[in-house]
Design goal:
The protein has about 475 residues and is an alpha+beta fold. Helix content is about 55%, strand content about 15%. The protein is rod-shaped and about 155 Å long. Bound molecules: adenosine-5'-diphosphate.
Length: about 475
Amino acid sequence: MRLPLRTRLTLLYVTLFAIIVSAWAVFVVVLVRADLYSGIDRALDSRASQIALSLTGSVEGEFQDITGSTLVGVAPTEATAQLLSATGTVLESSGDTMSVDPLLPQSVIAGAFRSGTASVHTVVGRDGETFRVLIVRMTGLDQLIVVGTSTDTADASVQSLVFMMLLSGPVVLLVAGGAGWLLARRALSPVAHMTATASGIGIEALGERVPVPPGNDELSGLADTLNGMLDRLETGVRAKRRLVADASHELQTPIAVMRTELDVALASGALQPEAVEVLESAREETDHMARIVRNLLTLARFDEGTLRLLRQDVGLRATSEEIVASLATLARETGVTMEVSGDEVVVLADPEYLRVAVVNLVENAIKYSGVGSSVTVEVVPVVSGATVTVVDDGPGIAADALPRIFDRFYRADGTRGMASGSGLGLAISREIVEAHGGRLEVDSRVSGGSRFTLWMPTGQGPAGLS
Ligand code: ADP
């Protein structure tokens, strides 16, 4: 699963921040530890110098007193001093109990004796305690001074620093994560805005544009690019709609002329029966073509918003009866019986378009229900409107086809060979009904017949269409 960009940005930010903070913490700890150890080393150095200074010209027995005074304030278990012979034998010792044995290995002692330079070593005592130990040869003497101090205090300080960092680290990361999340949200909010607007822009709302965030950055550039793309799309879609409208309009006249000429030819009476058959078939196809062109023109006008409804009082029952009467021939030929039920209800509608919407439903019911079926047109008054329901007891519509039957040019499987049609009828009916502020719904099951319900409001429809 891909996480949202905001989450990914925050995670990246927190990870980077954690790496930087960890590196910084390690650097600080190492620096503090080195600083503390160098402080210890400096103290050891000055102690060794003090002891050497005091011992020069003094008798060896005074070692205890000298070291005692130089190590003043330091607990005996944390400090130690030794006076070693050239061979590494402990001549004198004071402080920590471990100082009775040489604190440093013989090789180190021998090296220090040979080189004569001071060196500092880290030594782990018998009880696991760590010491910083300085060894230096006394100038002009065959003796070495060894001074050591436990690093416990310094180590404890470093440990408490580490502990503090470990404790505060998650809190710092949490705060940084929260801040990162808010920052990412703020930075991406124009994108969310654009996404919401862009997802609402469909073929019906091509005039809308995504908001352009202020400034001259990548986001405003993206918004400008999107808007530029929408401009081009709108121009293209408008041109396509214009073409369909113009083409349908231009086709109407030649089709009408063809229809008239076919009528004239068929009326002549001097034709062979085969020629009559061919011309009648041509006339049928011309009618079909005329219907398609008319439908396309109606849809193009809806799309362009140039279609105007001329509303007036229309009786739904009277309209239904008139439609049933006009389709009686088709019903008879198909072997379908029809009836209209319900009382008269008057609605405010464009009678021509309302007629087209209902005709499509009744025609479909006749075409698709088949021989022996019955079709009923029911007019029922409902709250703030009325319904015209066209019910048939035909084969019904498959569940997978049902959501698509109002799509343009959609015809359910098996329908194509069954009856003539273009797949535009229901799309047009729905456009007409919705333009009046009404609704067109279907309820159908395979073998259970179909039921198309057209709901019309008794009041005024949406503004701008009347
Ligand atoms: P057309 O009738 O020109 O094919 P429509 O848009 O009127 O186009 O209908 C779309 C499709 O819906 C039809 O092709 C048909 O498959 C299905 N249909 C519509 N009405 C009915 C009905 N009463 N019974 C069964 N199928 C129907």
